[in-house]
Each structure stands twice: as structure tokens, then as C-alpha cells.
Amino acid sequence: MTTDLSVELDVRVSDLGPSGHLSNVASMRLLDEARSRLFGVNLPALGLNEGGLLDVLDGRARMVIGRHLVEFRREVWHPVTSLTIRMWIPTLGRSSLALAAAVYEDGIAEPAVVAQSQAVLVASDTGRPWPMDTTARELFGRYCGPRPVFRDLGAADPRTGDHAGQDL
């Protein structure tokens, strides 16, 4: 990774399930919030504009997420109060990019959650894929890193889609 994209986020009481661990839904919310803080939020109708990496697009395009792959590697238990989310870009396409993320708890080297999202840049005026210009490609290229490694579930049964015999 050439440059670090990371943000520390507070864990809310509502992020913890009845048993006291961080819920899967809360993990997704934290990933989404980290992406918004790092890449920016521009909602003119609400009078909200928090800058980020997407400022380089000057309103010509926006980022749309088309897919998430999330692996929950271990539980995060109360009394955790904050988590660090690190993000990087493993793949840059013509108008798309893969956005990888890892969620870390203080003092633990291995991430609790690993994710990869597929994002498409779409033109603000047409809603069609927007080919990255040189400026955007150079900026996003600063944050390139490896593809996250996910556990292999093995071959699925073509009739059921089950991954029989595979332990997670």
C-alpha cells in the first residue's frame, strides 16, 4: 500500500447485539461510514458537503456501490469503544474500482472484518459509467494495495449451492 486510508470510528451501544458483541449490520454501517468519511459525502439537497477523495471529480461523477463481499473473522466484544477501519484500492478499472477494507480492534493485529466492495463511478448528469480521467486515476492510484484474501468455501453443489463438508 502506498498511502494509508484509515479512520477511527466510535462504537455505539446500539452497535452491540444482545450478547454484547458487534453485530454484522453494525459492521456494515461502520464500513459505510468509513467510506463516506474518506471518499466524501455530497448531498446538496440536504446542504451537506463533507469533502473527501471524490472531490477530485468536481461533481462530474459519483460513486455507486454494486457489490459487497464481507467476511466476519471473529467477534468484537464489549467494552470496545472504537475501531480502526483501513481501506485501499486493489483494482482500478476504466470506470470502476474495487475498494478493500479491514476493521481492527486496538491491540489486535488481525482484522475482525475484511471486506471488498465493487464501486462504479457514474456521471452525475446521465447516470452512466464515467471513465476516470487522468487526475482521478492518479489520485486513486496512490491508494493501491493487494486484494484481500477470503476463506475458500470450496466447490458448491450445483443442485443446491451448498458447500458441504467445508468448515469455516
Description:
With 168 residues, the protein is of the alpha+beta class. It contains 2 helices and 7 strands; from the N terminus they run E-H-E-E-E-E-E-E-H. The protein has helices at 24-39, 134-141, and strands at residues 5-10, 41-43, 48-50, 61-72, 82-92, 96-104, 113-123. The strands form 2 sheets. It has a 5-stranded antiparallel sheet. A hairpin with an 8-residue loop joins strand 6 and strand 7 (113-123). The longest helix is centred in the N-terminal third of the chain and has 16 residues, at 24-39. It starts with a strand and ends in a 27-residue tail after the last helix. The model has no long low-confidence stretch (mean pLDDT 88).
* Ends apart, CA distance between termini: 28 Å
| Average pLDDT level | 88
Gyration radius, to the nearest Å? 18 Å
Share of helix among residues?
Answer: 10-25%
Please give the order of strands in the largest beta sheet: 1-5-6-7-4
Low-confidence segments, given as residue ranges, are none
What's the SSE pattern? EHEEEEEEH
What is the overall shape? globular
- Please report which band the strand proportion falls in: under 5%, 5-15%, 15-25%, 25-35%, 35-45% or over 45%: 25-35%
Structural class: alpha+beta
Oligomer: single chain
* Total DSSP E strands: 7
